[in-house]
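Reviewer comment 2.1 asked that we show a complete input and output for one of the modelled complexes. We chose the adenosine monophosphate case, as it is the one discussed in the main text.
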Amino acid sequence: MSDCIFCKIIAGEIPSKKIFEDDEMLAFHDITPQAPVHFLLIPRKHIRSIMELKKADADLLGRLFFKAQELAKELGCGEKGARFVINCKTDGGQTVDHLHIHILGGRSLGWPPG
Ligand code: AMP
Ligand code: ZN
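Response of the prediction step:
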């Protein structure tokens, strides 16, 4: 998608602080971190939101969550944990329409969200 900032990050047109990439996903630090650890994990495939997820994407989503777990551990969240968040559309607070998992850790996070 030409007007999607995360597709532009994937294409290298917008810089990012990359943590990991392979042929189907990319992880990078959030530009406005809300916790000592705050990174995003995205599929290279442009999926607008979790509401647009197809059955054929189920394995990809599983691999994304497994990689989220691995990277969270690598960044020191294995013992105390982290929050794995997918915001969706307007009510969910999604601001970038390319499916992404937020991984937040390094401090105790409040609940419920405001
Ligand atoms: P959401 O509100 O769930 O759609 O999350 C979008 C996230 O993308 C926000 O936490 C932003 O801080 C983050 N973000 C936006 N632009 C960039 C960028 N160029 N590099 C890294 N993170 C970004
Ligand atoms: Zn995109």
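Residues 83 and 109 are 8 Å apart (CA to CA). We note this here for comparison with the apo prediction described in Section 3.2.
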